[in-house]
Design goal:
Elements: H1 12-39, E1 57-59, E2 63-76, E3 83-95, E4 101-102, E5 112-115, E6 121-122, E7 126-131, E8 134-136, E9 138-139, E10 145-152, E11 161-167, E12 170-172, E13 181-183, E14 191-200
Parallel strand pairs: 2-14
Antiparallel strand pairs: 1-2, 2-3, 3-10, 4-9, 5-6, 5-11, 7-8, 7-10, 11-14, 12-13
Length: about 200
């Protein structure tokens, strides 16, 4: 039996070509993984309370809100029993839905909160609006409203800053019904925007 002749080594060009194929395959896998991560929001987790500034438009799903400023002011109480001091956040509100929405409870108020010294998020006592030069408690679809969210202050309160959070509304159905509606989770600390604003005088 004749001895088997040794297999000659692959030519340098063929070895290089093989290395290029492997390298390109690895790069392809990395590119696919990177694209998947990017589509999922990147490597970093989306912040639950993204920091925003006054003057930025915030998309809250049902509403588009532009916070203007915060100031102290005096206003009549709801039932006309005198005047009280309030922290007043002024904002432009646009109803993006197809139906009239309340600025009060059951509407915009449910998605607006301010942070107390004790670290608790609280809704404003009320939100008042002006549209077309007239006072209003609602927001019509597509019609901008100049609104004021009001938190009651004590006689000695004089904060220099106010931190507010604006929650996102989602079009979905609840646990007990199958019809779709605009819903906001009033217990969530996940905001569409969190703003810390200097408090000005009225």
């Amino acid at each position: 039996m004749q001895p088997t002749a040794p297999v000659p080594p692959a030519p340098p060009q063929r070895a290089k070509a093989r290395r290029w194929v492997v390298s390109l395959a690895v790069l392809g896998v990395v590119a696919v993984l990177s694209a998947g991560v990017g589509a999922a929001g990147g490597f970093k987790e989306k912040p639950k309370q993204p920091v925003k500034k006054a003057g930025e438009r915030l998309d809250l799903g049902l509403f588009e809100v532009t916070v203007r400023d915060v100031r102290t002011g005096v206003a009549d109480e709801t039932f006309g029993s005198g005047e009280k001091r309030f922290l007043i956040m002024r904002m432009r509100v646009l109803n993006k839905g197809k139906e009239t929405e309340s600025l009060g409870t059951g509407g915009l108020t449910d998605g607006v909160v301010a942070l107390t010294k004790a670290g608790k998020w609280v809704k404003p006592e009320r939100i008042e609006g002006v549209a077309g030069g007239a006072s209003t408690g609602t927001a019509q679809p597509g019609l901008p409203v100049e609104a004021s969210a009001m938190w009651e202050m004590g006689p000695a309160d004089s904060p220099k800053k106010l931190t507010v959070g604006l929650r996102e509304w989602k079009y979905e159905h609840g646990f007990t019904d199958t019809s779709f509606n605009w819903i906001v989770d009033q217990k969530s600390d996940e905001f569409a925007g969190r703003l810390t604003l200097a408090v000005g005088a009225s």
